[in-house]
Write a structure and sequence with these properties.
Strand content: 15-25%
Shape: globular
Number of domains: 1
Helix content: 40-55%
Number of strands: 11
CATH topology: TIM Barrel
Mean pLDDT: 95
CATH superfamily: Luciferase-like domain
CATH class: Alpha Beta
Radius of gyration: 20 Å
CATH architecture: Alpha-Beta Barrel
């Protein structure tokens, strides 16, 4: 079957973080996501029934401490993708792989397994590696920023050659693969889609050159800047590399019958129950601090967004207001968003009941009809 990422819905939807404890919200609020296989599977099955295009896991090896040890319990994302691919029917199942933690020969084979398990509905999110506690367990270290992308380019070249070629030799700056060989090949031709979230100028250029989906961070209340970011990513992909490129971002959702209820709940789970210690650790690992790039007030807002939903854009309000905000995002040229909630199980069901029909009325999506 065709990969759902390339359907003709104007606003594609995914779910972010269904394989890690607390999902995307660093909070102790009642109903937060507790990691076990039944709960993770429920998220996948709900998304699949709704016809959402993507399920995107987080690659994590250690948590961020605090009272929640945010994301401290995780399912490894390649084996998770293979298992969830086998039980789902329509959604694309991603894996997220940190380049320094996985040799490309092993990664290529595991990706093919997931692609076959899902009958050609697999996609790979390539992350260059940034978390020192994670990488130290592998005997690796966080390398200089631009060098990470050089390494990722070699890694991805080897993976794609294993997916498409017969035996070959490769010798680069970071990897040596004598008589590289991989069978079977992926179901998807020429190979499964790639996502990358490079945000720096070097990272954005890497995404434009190698990825099918560029995952980017949007700014609040900055329509023109966000649209310019989308336009520039597409322009670089088209003009410099003769490629088409989708652009997605992440949003965290609080949808309630009234705007006041939505705002009150956001304040409750973020300020009253949020694990700000964990997010202090997370942002420090990311190298975020008040500097010439971020004022203290801006840094505090960044932390707020990490507590609320792994740094995503807030979408808060009634179902009608939520759809209005998604329409505004669509007008920037954005192709899709990955969603997160505090209580995935309950709030995904409310999304299906209250929001999806309004998205269809707004021509953001077509009614989903499962394949026979």
């Amino acid at each position: 079957m065709a990969n759902a990422l390339f359907n003709d819905n104007k606003m594609k939807l995914g779910v972010f973080g269904p394989n890690v404890s607390h999902g995307c919200a660093a909070t102790t609020a009642e109903g937060h996501f507790e990691l076990n296989w039944a709960n993770s599977r429920d998220i996948v099955e709900q998304a699949d029934r709704m016809g959402l295009e993507a399920l995107v896991p987080v690659a994590r090896w250690k948590g961020f401490g605090g009272v929640t040890d945010f994301n401290g319990a995780t399912y490894e994302s390649l084996s998770w993708a293979a298992a969830m691919g086998a039980i789902s029917k329509s959604s694309t199942i991603f894996s997220t792989t940190h380049v320094p933690t996985m040799h490309p020969v092993a990664a290529a084979k595991q990706c093919v397994t997931a692609d076959h398990a899902s009958n050609g509905r697999f996609a790979l999110n390539v992350v260059c590696g940034w978390s020192t506690p994670d990488l130290e367990m592998f005997g690796a270290s966080v390398t200089e920023h631009d060098r990470r992308y050089e390494m990722a380019a070699e890694w991805l070249e080897i993976v794609r050659r294993l997916w498409t070629e017969g035996e070959f030799n490769f010798e680069g700056k970071f990897y040596k693969v004598p008589k590289g060989f991989g069978e079977p090949k992926p179901i998807q031709k020429p190979y499964p889609p790639i996502m990358n979230a490079g945000a720096s100028p070097v990272g954005a250029r890497f995404a434009a050159k190698y990825a099918d989906i560029a995952f980017t961070v949007f700014f609040e209340g900055a329509f023109d800047a966000n649209k310019a970011q989308v336009d520039n990513l597409r322009r670089v992909a088209r003009e410099d590399f003769n490629r088409a490129l989708q652009v997605w971002t992440g949003v965290w959702v609080v949808c309630r019958p009234t705007e006041k209820e939505a705002q009150d709940y956001a304040n409750y789970y973020i300020y009253e129950k949020g694990d700000w210690e964990a997010v202090e650790n997370l942002t420090r690992e990311l190298g975020l601090k008040a500097s010439e790039y971020l004022t203290p007030a801006q840094l505090q807002r960044v932390k707020y967004r990490f507590v609320a939903g792994w740094g995503g854009l807030p979408v808060i309000g009634t179902p009608e207001q939520v759809v209005d905000q998604l329409l505004e995002l669509s007008r920037t040229g954005l192709d899709g968003v990955v969603l997160s909630w505090v209580n995935y199980h309950q709030e995904m069901r409310e999304w299906a009941r209250d929001v999806l029909p309004l998205m269809e009325q707004a021509s953001l999506r077509k009614p989903f009809r499962p394949a026979a």
